[in-house]
Each structure stands twice: as C-alpha cells, then as structure tokens.
Amino acid sequence: MKKKEENFLDKVPSIKEDITWEMSDGHVVVIKENKGFYDKLAQKLFFSPEKSRISLEEKGSYIWQLIDGKKTVYEIGKKLDEKFGEDASPLYERLCEYIQSLSSIGFINLK
C-alpha cells in the first residue's frame, strides 16, 4: 500500500525554543549562539563573535512574525498575499522555499 504524501502547505512551522530574536528598525533580527566545538575554536583563534545577529528583510520579517506554531504554511501564505499581493509572487513556491530554508538552518521546526 502506498504511503500518503504530506502536503507541505499543511505543515505548521514553529520557532525553536532556543532561538531568540528581536525587532530592530522594523525588521526581525535572529540571534544565534555560536556554541559548537568549531565555533569555540574560531572564537579563540579568530576572535569570532559568540553570537551572530541575522537580520531578515521585510517579507522574511513578516513571515517570521506569523510563525506561531498554530498557523499552517497555507495560512501564512494567505496573510502574505494580503499584505504584499503581486510582490510576493510566485507566492507559495517562494514561501515554501523560505520555510524550508529556515528549517534546514535550524531556526524553526515543522510539524
């Protein structure tokens, strides 16, 4: 029997508990602690920072603020379309890629 394929738009993203963020000039700034072995080594040898600050652009900041562990990717897309309209096109292709990127770098979970 074939396994039922999941629709990515039905997934619910949530920000990982160990991720901190703040607002700066209307944009989200994600603060990532560099605490792995190689991070510590780079900090000692090359004076790398203990924390990295990653600023998200306008649409990314808007998406980030919609990620609450309750809304599906589809629902986030509807809100994105309401706010940005044609500027967000192609809407779901770009949104899915962005959500997958946030997940792959370890900022969010998908359930």
Give short descriptive properties of this protein.
single chain; 111 residues; 4 helices; Outer Surface Protein A, domain 3; two-stranded antiparallel ribbon; alpha+beta
Explain how this protein is built:
A hairpin with a 2-residue loop joins β2 (20-24) and β3 (27-33). The chain has a single domain (8-110), classed as Alpha-Beta Complex (Outer Surface Protein A, domain 3). It is α+β, with helices and mostly antiparallel strands. The radius of gyration is 16 Å and the shape is globular. 41% of the residues lie in helices and 21% in strands.
Could you say what the CATH architecture is?
Alpha-Beta Complex
Number of strands: 5
Q: Largest sheet, if any?
A: 3 strands, antiparallel
Total individual domains: 1
Q: Which series of helices and strands comes N to C?
A: EEEHEHHHE
Residue fraction in strands: 15-25%
Strand order of the largest sheet: 2-3-4
SSE order and pairing:
Layout: E1 13-15, E2 20-24, E3 27-33, H1 37-46, E4 51-55, H2 58-66, H3 73-84, H4 91-104, E5 108-110
Antiparallel strand pairs: 1-5, 2-3, 3-4
Helix pairs in contact: 2-3, 3-4
